[in-house]
Design goal:
about 130 residues, mainly alpha, Globin-like, 7 helices, iron, GlbO/GLB3-like
Length: about 130
């Protein structure tokens, strides 16, 4: 049996990314610590997240085609991302990964990569 070449392929491609992002933003849109830094309508935010995660986990580079170079830290600078908000974001993602039923070792690999990214996005100390 051929081993999958990327996390993206291993988890089932765009369908799984789509389910993960949908589960994630359902939580973000209701999280009191995250609501202040996200738009009320999460449609466009979720669309960009789908494109980014597809590329981030080894799938097609749709994000770059649509938005250019990710420059993720720079794109997030206008938002106050505190350690508390980082943790809330990761909590929502952890629950979304559970709901999506992504299997090991991919679930852990995904969460570890996103944890490193979330740490990198922090730009404001807790108040």
């Amino acid at each position: 049996m051929k081993q999958p070449g990327t996390i993206y392929e291993a988890i089932g491609g765009f369908d799984t990314i789509d389910r993960l992002v949908t589960a994630f933003y359902r939580r973000v849109g209701n999280h009191p610590k995250l609501i202040p830094i996200f738009p009320e309508d999460l449609t466009e935010t979720a669309r960009k997240q789908r494109l980014f995660l597809t590329m981030f986990f080894g799938g097609p580079k749709w994000y770059v085609e649509d938005r250019g170079h990710p420059m993720m830290r720079r794109r997030h600078l206008p938002f106050e991302i505190t350690p508390e908000r980082r943790d809330a974001w990761l909590e929502c993602m952890d629950q979304a990964l559970d709901e999506t039923k992504i299997e090991e070792p991919y679930r852990t690999a995904i969460f570890e990569k996103l944890t490193m990214t979330a740490h990198h996005m922090m730009n404001t100390p807790d108040q």
